[in-house]
Amino acid sequence: MEKSSIGLIGLAVMGQNIARNISRNHKISVYNRTASVTEDFLKEYESNMLVGETDLKAFVDSVASPRKIAIMVKAGKPVDMVIEGLLPLLDKGDTILDFGNSNYHDVIRREKELADKGFNFFGCGVSGGEEGALNGPSMMPGGNKAVWEDLRPIFESICAEDFDGGKCVTYLGENGAGLYVKMVHNGIEYGVMQMMAEAYETLTHAYGLNPGEIADIFEKYQTGKLQSYLFEISIPILRKKDESGKDFLLDKILDKAGQKGTGRWTALDSLDQGVALSVITEAVFARTVSSMKDKREVFSKLYDKPKPNFETPLEDFIVELEDALYAGMLVSYAQGFLLLKSAAEDKGWDFDYAEISRIWEGGCIIRAKILSTLHTAFGKNPQADLLEIPEIAKDLSDSLPNFRKVVGECMSNGMPLFCLSSALTSFEAMTNARGSANFIQGQRDFFGAHTFLRTDKEGVWHADWHEGGAITKVK
Ligand code: NBP
Q1: Mean pLDDT of 72-78
Q2: Which residue of 8, 38, 73 sits with most ligand 1 atoms within 8 Å of its CB, as the best mutation to test the pocket?
């Protein structure tokens, strides 16, 4: 029997869908730890392009050499366990591929460990959820370049298309580069979702709109610069009624958000890299605060909140909010790309930011019109920071008055704005030539003799801050 071009381990929701996607063009063998899952999958999707095995050795033997075996299991320890089980059955030169949301540090470690033993390990971020996995995800591969060339035909046959019909996959760099970009993608997803939630909360509490009315507004946004997959899916989410057919289901969903860790990893990495990734970090905090439901119930009884009293008529607010969301997202992307740049420098990756924007245009959860704007902007200014690209600066400047107005009105009416307000603060600070850190430096020098630089004189200085104390050049 002809052997399969690739094997895949892990038949939960993502594995099943990506296997079906691959099987449209390439023969694929599948295996799942729990054998009944493999059997049920084969029963449902029987095809001569799909080979299922319940014995790991038989599965490995069914894949053509040098083998390519993809893992799509729960990230973390399970991936190491699968690798451990596979290695004795593989031949030197075979490739293990990780399609899951693995931490990029793990990818770097696994690649090194496997290379030392004569095997290839290749990490590829896959975004798009269940539907993307089946019909075309955005793929973020990183690892050995020669291995990439070998995998490329399969990846290009299953991925989504960008706005111009190109493939939503591009080689991103050595070792953990692909999973790093996927991590930042997920962080950006956190920020965008939170800003949308803030819009929803404001329209609900300040303007008293029901979810169906908010869906009408989001539908309008979907025809303009905010056009995106996340707005597209939010419209049916907002309109969905519960079993009674009368009440909105959203109104009955507990307001505690889950998280699997990629947003937190992005935030932690930004602290390590020294990049001010405030929007994504605040989005992680917003989910943390959401999970503190019991405490919020208690505290809400202790403090009076102003009854929202927005002066802006709803029709005007809808326009202003669109600008605020757009500007907030641009700032969040600017921060995300700064993190990518810092990581590239730190790890020796050579990221192409226009390409990264392009492969996010299709298939993935953050796919949106704004990515096409970023793709064009980076295309003309490959290494620039987003905030210095003229087209982005113009878009931001045009949106700024409404951005400031929305954040100001929401904050003065007691609305929590984790991400929109932090995006605005970040923008204001990043565009301030003279900030307030001179004050911090004065305090640091007072209590710890940490010294300071001056704007009027060369050298490193320390002051005795008491009246009449000396100001001394120490270097
Ligand atoms: P899950 O993350 O829920 O993992 C379930 C799979 O892992 C099952 O096939 C399970 O086998 C297998 N597994 C576990 Br758990 N421990 C194992 C072990 N020790 N040895 C072998 N297999 C083990 O599946 P998923 O939601 O399909 O996601 C798969 C990967 O893709 C994850 O890394 C996820 O973060 C990533 N991802 C998910 C999405 C999404 O929308 N869900 C999107 C993008 C990326 P069993 O059947 O025997 O328990």
Answers
A1: 97
A2: 73
Closest CA to 60 of 4, 124, 2: 4
User: Which residue, among 352, 333, 365, 343, has the nearest Cα to 125 in the 3D structure?
Assistant: 365
CA of 75 to the centre of ligand 1 (A): 7
User: Alpha-carbon torsion 262, 264, 266, 268, what sign?
Assistant: negative
Domain boundaries, the chain: 6-175, 182-430, 437-473
Quick one: what percent of the chain has pLDDT higher than 70? 100
For residue 248, what are the β-bridge partners?
241
Fold adopted by 182-430: N-(1-d-carboxylethyl)-l-norvaline Dehydrogenase; domain 2 (1.10.1040)
Alpha-carbon distance of 13 to 10, in angstroms, equals 9
* pLDDT of residue 5 exceeding 90: yes
Is pLDDT of 306 > 90? no
With tokens 């729960």, the residue in question is 74
CA dist 298 and 300 (Å) reads: 6
Say which CATH class 437-473 falls into. mainly alpha
Alpha-carbon span 302 to 22, nearest angstrom: 56
Distance 230 CA to ligand 1 centre (A): 23
Task: Answer yes or no: is the C-beta of 183 below 6 A from any ligand 1 atom.
Answer: no
C-alpha of residue 5 to centroid of ligand 1, in Å:
22
0.90 exceeded by pTM: yes
pLDDT at residue 342 greater than cutoff 90: yes
CATH of 6-175, one of 3.40.50.300, 3.10.180.10, 3.40.50.720, 3.30.1050.10: 3.40.50.720
- Residues with a catalytic annotation lie at 182, 189
